[in-house]
Structures are given as C-alpha cells and as structure tokens.
Design brief:
Rossmann fold, 5 strands, five-stranded parallel β-sheet, globular, binds shikimate-3-phosphate
C-alpha cells in the first residue's frame, strides 16, 4: 500500500506557517496528490471581496480582514477532504485553531528567516501588507519572533532547502504515520 492509499480519513488538512513558507504551493500539490479540494483562505477572501488582500487591509483595516478570516475558518470547518492553505496568522487565533482542528490535521511549515526573506522578495506577484514598510527584513524577524511560539503548537514540517514535492512527501509521511 502506498503512503497516499494509507490515508483513510475525511479530515481536512490545514497548513499554517509564516508568510513565504510555501503553504499555497505545497497545499495545491498535496491536494492534487490526495484528490482533495484545495482552498487558499487569502484567495477566497480576496475573491469574495473583489479586491486583493493588501487592498482589504488598506480600505477596511486589518481587523476587518481578521474578522473575514474567522468567518471563513468556521465555514471551512464544516467541509471535508480539503487541503486548506491558511493566511500566516489565521491559525494563531485560538478560536480559529480550535474550530479547524476539530476535523483537521494541522501542519506548520517552517523555513529559516533568510529563506523567507528570499522567497518573499522573489514573489513579486504578492503584495504583503504587513511587510510593506521601509525595512521588511526587520519586520520579518520581529514578526517571526513574536509568532514562533504560536506556530510551535502544530506538527512541524521543515521546508528549507526542500522542493515543493519533497515537502508534500513529508506531509504525506506524517499523515500515514498518524494512521498506524
Ligand atoms: C498575513 C499573511 C498573508 C495574508 C495577510 C496577513 C500574516 O498570507 O493573510 O497578508 O499576518 O501573516 P500568507 O501567509 O499566505 O502570505
């Protein structure tokens, strides 16, 4: 039996982690491998609002964005067989984490601060409102330090130096182990 066949649960798979750890790329491929629905919370919110996340921050404020995340977390928790790539802070909210963990396996993707900086800089398509200031590097380090403990509550998956496919394999292995 392959690793994928060994995963016999309808539970959602939730990916959390700092910006630039690869939640969306890993989530998309993982969903494809498992035959699950892929959901990216930032994309759903942006689509429903008709504007990009940074525009929502600018026009409505961060609090309004967080309220949208909380509502979406509750909605998604009712579904099954979804791979959910969450915005970088969504699972650090205790209520969001509780509701999504009830029928979900949560994995936290980690990368070194250096790698996060390189990935965020390379990803010119995404505007990240929290890093929009004059010194994104210091902001990344400060936010990372602030959030480290919160992310550490979830099953860790290290992504530094790994391809997307290797990270997907690592998640599948952890899922299969959890079934035994
Ligand atoms: C945020 C991360 C972003 C997005 C928003 C806030 C954060 O998602 O939700 O800009 O607070 O870490 P990604 O982690 O997908 O970049």
């Amino acid at each position: 039996m392959t690793t994928l066949q060994a995963i016999q649960s309808d539970d959602n798979i939730i990916l959390t982690g700092f910006m630039g750890t690869g939640k969306s790329s890993v989530g998309r491929l993982l969903a494809e491998r498992l035959g699950y629905t892929f959901v990216d919370t930032d994309d759903v919110i942006a689509h429903r609002c008709g504007r990009a996340v940074h525009e929502i921050f600018r026009r409505e404020g961060e609090e309004a964005f967080r309220a949208r995340e909380a509502a979406l977390a509750r909605e998604l928790a009712a579904g099954k067989r979804q791979v959910i790539a969450t915005g970088g802070r969504l699972m650090l909210d205790a209520d969001n984490a509780a509701v999504l963990s009830r029928h979900g396996r949560v994995f936290c993707l980690w990368a070194s601060a250096e790698e996060i900086m390189a990935r965020v800089a390379a990803d010119t398509a995404a505007v990240r409102p929290l890093l929009a200031g004059p010194d994104p590097e210091s902001r990344i380090r400060a936010l990372y330090a602030e959030r480290r403990e919160g992310y550490a509550r979830f099953t860790p998956i290290m992504t530094s130096g790994q391809t997307v496919s290797e990270v997907v394999q690592a998640v599948c292995e952890r899922l299969a182990v959890a079934q035994e």
